[in-house]
């Protein structure tokens, strides 16, 4: 009886969808004993592929079908919003604007406690300086961890400041031999520096030692030749005979 109660289901859907939002009956699916869901096409603009689902039921030993609920559900061809993603996973490089704040989680794997001095080259002087700074409260709470440093190095090396950039491939020499390269400190300073040439497209940016550009400090103009030009051989113009021929 529930499967045959199409008119009962249609009337219930009509009260919710309105005469302009209800289309043809599509199908019905059994949910349980004496419980069936009827599906109708939704004709509201913007809801292509959606279906009105009307669940009807019948009590035991009863011949009356009642309506349980009417809901609008997406079909297999419906246009849906993309899955929700937390903001921390949606943020991309370049999204941060003036006045925006990007909180860093306490367990960020890119960072390590400042007392570890993970972003410095190990040395006796660095160890002593670390303890003095900690006692005076001058040290940073957190510094780059090894994971954070490795990720930064991979990102920089694969980016526009690395050796695979078209500008670098056409450069006359690498940045490691350029006088405008300012070396970084710490472990990153073994591979990267900062360009200080205002005419370079990388001015003020991190570049790898094997990066390069046309503004290299040793990209000098060729020296002018000191060889003297040989005088041209004298010749006679056949269109203008010499004065000796006229006499």
From TrEMBL:
Pfam families found in the cross-reference section: DUF3027 (PF11228)
InterPro entries: DUF3027
The organism of origin for this protein: Thermasporomyces composti
Protein name in UniProt: DUF3027 family protein
Sequence ranges of Low complexity compositional bias: 234-247
Disordered as annotated region, ranges: 96-127, 217-247
């Amino acid at each position: 009886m529930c499967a045959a109660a199409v008119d009962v289901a249609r009337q219930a859907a009509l009260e919710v969808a309105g005469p302009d939002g209800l289309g043809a009956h599509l199908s019905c699916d059994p949910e349980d004993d004496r419980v069936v869901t009827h599906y109708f096409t939704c004709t509201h603009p913007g809801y292509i592929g959606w279906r009105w689902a009307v669940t009807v039921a019948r009590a035991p030993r009863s011949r009356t079908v009642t309506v349980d609920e009417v809901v609008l559900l997406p079909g297999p061809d419906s246009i849906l919003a993309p899955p929700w993603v937390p903001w921390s996973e949606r943020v991309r490089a370049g999204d941060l604007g003036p006045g925006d704040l990007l909180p860093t989680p306490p367990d960020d794997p890119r960072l390590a406690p400042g007392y570890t001095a993970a972003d410095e080259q190990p040395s006796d002087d660095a160890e002593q300086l670390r303890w003095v700074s900690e006692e005076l409260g001058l040290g940073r709470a957190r510094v780059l961890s090894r994971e954070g440093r490795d990720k930064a190095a991979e990102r920089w090396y694969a980016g526009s400041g690395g050796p695979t950039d078209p500008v670098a491939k056409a450069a006359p020499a690498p940045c490691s031999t350029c006088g405008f390269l300012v070396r970084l400190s710490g472990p990153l300073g073994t591979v990267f520096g900062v360009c200080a040439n205002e005419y370079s497209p990388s001015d003020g940016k991190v570049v790898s030692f094997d990066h390069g550009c046309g503004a290299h400090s040793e990209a000098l103009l060729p020296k002018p030749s000191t060889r003297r030009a040989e005088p041209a051989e004298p010749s006679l113009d056949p269109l203008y005979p010499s004065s000796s021929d006229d006499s």
